[in-house]
Amino acid sequence: MDHDVPVDQIAAIAGLGQQMGIDLGGYGGAHCIPVERPPGVPDEVPEICKHMHIVKASDEDCRKIMADSDTDDEELGRQILGWGADIFVATRGSRGALVLTKSDRWEIPPYQGNAIDPTGGGDTFMAGYLVAYLRTGDPEFAGRFGAATALCAIEKTGGVTAERMPTTEMVEECMKRPTMPLS
What does the pLDDT look like over 43-98, one tens digit per residue? Predict the structure, then answer.
């Protein structure tokens, strides 16, 4: 969760030629041990992002990566796309998500539901996103699928367990719910 895979190993894995995705929470984001550093992106982040097809960060991760409480997730997302990633996904908790490509931008509203335990919400969002993206190649649909996947998980409690993870059918049913207005 905190720099688990060294940058040189990320580059070597990328050399295998497969699509790759990463959650930056473990590379300067919310999952890292806090360290004092000047504002701005840590040197490793552009190097990591140039090897990734999909990069995900929560809005909190974005602020921590930039060491700036005023950082806008879209601003960091545009930088990440400039470093070579094809898709940037920012999860925003109850405010939904943002999906960016070099040519498109989608605000993904959250589905209406009863969030009980947010533990694992970002991870299940990304799991759902990756499943849908690999099946369809559609970044916006994948964002909606990811949002529904996360809601299915956070409507339950008990940690990140197999019992808490939704089936495809559960996610598809959740996608029929109305969405919350974006603020």
Answer: 899 999 999 999 999 999 998 888 888 888 999 999 999 999 999 999 999 999 99
Of 37, 63, 43, nearest to 3 by C-alpha is 43
Is the Cβ–Cβ distance between 142 and 133 less than 8 Å? yes
Q: Which residue has the tokens 């930056």?
A: 24
Residue labelled with tokens 């992106």: 41
**Calpha distance 74→3 (Å, rounded):** 23
Give the angle subtended at the CA of 150 by the CAs of 146 and 151, to the nearest 5°: 120
The pairing of strands 54-58 and 21-23 is parallel
Could you give the CA distance from residue 156 to residue 160 in angstroms, rounded to a whole number?
10
Catalytic-labelled residue, pool 70, 72, 123, 138: 123
**Closest Cα to residue 128, out of 155, 158, 152?**
152
Its pTM surpasses 0.85: yes
Task: Give the contacts of 108 (CB within 8 A, at least 6 positions apart).
Answer: 96, 97, 98, 99, 140, 143, 144, 146, 147
Catalytic annotation present for 73: no
